[in-house]
Amino acid sequence: MKRIVVAEDDPDLRDLLVFKLVQAGYEVTAVSTGREALDEAEAAQLFLLDVTLPDMTGLQVCSQLRSEDATKDTPVVLLTGHTQEADVAAGRSSGASDYIFKPFSPRDLVDRISALLTGGGDPPGR
After folding, report:
1. Cα–Cα distance between 33 and 31 in angstroms, integer?
2. pTM
3. What pLDDT, on a 0 to 100 scale, did the predictor assign at position 120?
4. What pLDDT digit, counting tens, does each position of 68-85 carry?
5. Which residues contact 53 (CB under 8 A, 6 or more apart)?
6. In-domain check, residue 124
7. Contact 38, 47 (CB under 8 A)
8. Backbone angles phi, psi at 90, to 5 degrees
9. Could you say which DSSP state residue 23 is in?
10. Which of 23, 43, 52, 80 has its CA 20 to 30 A from that of 34?
């Protein structure tokens, strides 16, 4: 079973993400900070990171994951309300595999994660 680390500080949204991903057949570890996400790094097959976390940004977490041999190729999806082109560019330059805007369709989110985990190429819409 593929393991996803979800880092989201909003408990209601985090619960929704966990519910939808478990429903889709994934094992999920849910955390609320960037540090906790990094602590779970070695066992994850994908990271779903809120850009705005309380201790560090999702961009910083992504950059750190990319700098480590064990996680440099692990897909990272950024989830954010920041929709400006510069924000998306910052996400891409941090090494993110995909960038999903809030509000989002849970089905689209699961489809995009599935595409990344199955090696089906770029997620839909890219």
Report:
1. 6
2. 0.91
3. 61
4. 999 999 999 999 887 778
5. 7, 9, 32, 33, 34, 37, 61
6. no
7. no
8. -65, -40
9. H
10. 23
Supply 76's token pair.
Answer: 């990272």
Domain that holds residue 101: 3-117
SS3 of residue 55 by DSSP: coil
Q: By C-alpha distance, which of 54, 48, 49 is closest to 21?
A: 48
Residues in the chain with pLDDT < 50?
123-126
In the numeric block, which tokens belong to residue 62? 């992504």
Phi-psi region of 49 (alpha: psi -120 to 50; beta: other; left: phi over 0): beta
List the end-to-end C-alpha distance of the chain, in Å, as a whole number: 26
Place of tokens 């500080």: 9
**62 lies in some domain:** yes
CATH number, domain of 13, equals 3.40.50.2300
